Every structure is written in C-alpha cells, then in structure tokens.
Amino acid sequence: MTTAAPIRVLIVDDSASVRQTLEAVLADAGDIRVIGTAADPFIAVKRIQEEVPDVIILDVEMPRMDGITFLRKIMAQKPIPVIICSTLTEEGSQMLLEALEAGAVDVLPKPRIDTRQFLQESRVRICDAVRAAAVARLRGPRARPMKVEEKLTADAMMPAPVLTRSMTQTTEKVICIGASTGGTESLREVLEALPFDSPAIVVVQHMPERFTAAFARRLDGLCKVDVKEAEDGDAVYPGRVLIAPGNRHTLLGRSGARYHLSVKDGPLVSRHRPSVDVLFRSAAQYAGANAVGILMTGMGDDGARGLLEMRKVGAHTVAQDEETSVVFGMPKEAIQRGAAIRVLPLQAIAGEIIRHRSNATSAYAS
User: Fold this and answer.
1) For the chain, what is the domain count?
2) How confident is the model over 168-227, as pLDDT tens digits?
3) What are the tens digits of pLDDT across the range 49-92?
4) Most buried pick, 5, 44, 106, 234, via CB within 10 A?
5) Does 124 lie in the same domain as 24?
6) Is residue 238 located within the same domain as residue 300?
7) Is 364 contained in some domain?
C-alpha cells in the first residue's frame, strides 16, 4: 500500500518567532512537511530553486520586497499555491483583498499562542488551509487524500430542524450561500451579476475576523445589491446581501413573515467559525421550502450536511460543479450525499438566484 507524499511547504516571513510557530503548528500534521523557511522573498527564491514547494505561506509586510509584489511575480512566472498569513487589521484588509485578486488561494491570521484554545484553532485552520491550497486549481487538479479529524456538527449551535406548518406562512425567498477556498472571487462574480431587486441573500465565506467587513465593503462598491457585514439582529430582505462576520456563527431566524440574523459565538463547527452547516441548518428550520441553499467551492465538507437538511424540508439546493470550483471538496461532498437538486457551473449560479426572486418584495412593499 502506497501513501501519498506529504505536502511540501515553504514559509516566508521576516519574523523568526512566526516562522518557528508555523513550523511547530505544521509539524504535528503527518501529511505536511516544511521544506524550508525564508526571512524575505529574495531568500525564498533561492529556496524555491533548490526545491519547489507545493504551497507557500507568505507574509505581506517584509523587508526588501513586500509579499504582494512577490506573489504577483510567482503567479506570472511559476504559479504555486500561496496562502497569505498576516496580522489582520482593519487598515490592512484592503491589502489582503489585493492579495486574493493577485492570485492568493487563502488569507489567514498569524497563529495566536496566548491560550491553548486559540493555538489549537490556529493549528486546525492553518493545516486545513494548506491541504486546500495543495489541491487548488492553479495548474490543474492534483488528488490528495484529505486527512480526517474529529469535528463538531451544527448540533453544537442548534438542534436538528423540524418541518412545521408555520414555515408555509410566508412566500419570501431567502438565498443562503456557503463557500470557502476560492470563494471570494467566485462570490464577487455571482453577486456582480445580480439585479438590485435580487432575493435576500446570506453568505458564509470562510475567512478571518476583521476581513469580512472589508470584503463586504468591496462587494458593495461593485454590486447593484447592497452588501454589508452581518450584525446581530440585521433584517434580511430583498436587494440586500449579508456576509457572516469572521470568527462568529451566523444563523437565520424569523419573526412572523420577516427574516433576521443572529450572530453568535460558539465552537468550531465542521472545523469552521462561521460554519456553513450552522447557517444552512437555521435556514432549514426557519425558512424551509422558502429557502435556496447554494454550496460553492471549498475544501472539506462544511455545508454538505446542512444542504441535505435544507433539501429534506423542501428547499431548492444547488452545488457548484467541479470544472468551475477552485477546490471541489464541499460541493462534491454535498453531491455525493444527495443534497444538491442541481449542479451548476459558476456562471449559471446568478441566473439560478434570479429565478427565485418571484414574490421577493411582497412582505416589504407596505
């Protein structure tokens, strides 16, 4: 029996302590091997000449050459999956958005070591991001086994949904979208194509805190619909897109015929916070057949269980196809579980949302 070669990682960061912490975090993963570290991009180039890594973990602010300039050179000359690992601040979020536009696969905060819980959660996020980056569609798909570890389900945040008669008392449609690796640019493409009177939309995109607000502002400037980072108690209505804040779970609720959001703390669910499974379960519970669930590109299985729960209560469910997914993990898992009624390419998802805008303004016309 042959085992897959470990994922080879190069760490590029000018902080020796960060390099050491990242090495220690990745050392615990049996399927990942750090092949070298570099204090700046010039040293990194020499390391790459010696051995080409499968994944690069890259800081943004470094001496001699900044990380985004180095990223653009990598993408232009010899594309390698790159994860940006940076100290996230509100002021620096725009720079990290530029990194994603330049070709970075993911953005992560630098690991926190102040408490055991935060260090453990950092380990989970960093290792999963490396695994996702290693199979991202840059130079064609590469199959690697996904290391399976114990994880919590949406039971940690709310009980399983029960279909009740009250779900049929509204015809308001609400679209719930989940995405992870590769999702930021994919979501932009979908949301830019929507008209101003699109159905209400709630999005869980796996990303760190302090980043979702900048991401929402960027989309708001590009789209006809209004886009904002979700806050606890926000109303959910047509023409509005709410992006779940990083590091907090977002759940759909309902008062009479109107939907609202609850933003809550809680454990990692399906190895994520926010979790798509948590949003989808709440949609199954409170919107039922009036909901549409869409699961897009990403590694792992977050959202697959929740999408199936949505389908079982009569919701319309969609998974992105393999050809247009940066990482065909989450959609594939949903398809295999029978959770997706339709499997669509990225360019068809906006049209699918528009199909469900009938009666989208009825409860808000008064």
Assistant:
1) 2
2) 445 689 999 999 999 999 999 999 999 999 999 999 999 988 889 989 999 999 999 999
3) 999 999 999 999 898 899 999 999 999 988 999 999 988 655 56
4) 106
5) yes
6) yes
7) no
Query: Does the residue 147 lie in any domain?
Result: no
Give the closest residue to 248 by CA, choosing from 224, 231, 225.
Answer: 231
CATH value at residue 91:
3.40.50.2300
- Of 69, 100, 134, the domain-final residue: 134
Same domain for 242 and 118: no
* pLDDT digit string, tens, across residues 257-306: 899 999 999 999 988 999 999 999 999 999 999 999 999 999 999 999 99
Which of 134, 166, 182 corresponds to the end of one domain?
A: 134
Give the residue numbers marked as catalytic.
180, 206, 302
Range of the domain at 106: 7-134
* CATH value at residue 343: 3.40.50.180
pLDDT band at 360 (very low <50, low <70, confident <90, very high): very low
Contact 57, 10 (CB under 8 A): yes
Same domain, 211 and 330: yes
> Measured in Å, how far apart are the chain's first and last C-alpha atoms?
67
267 & 326 share domain: yes
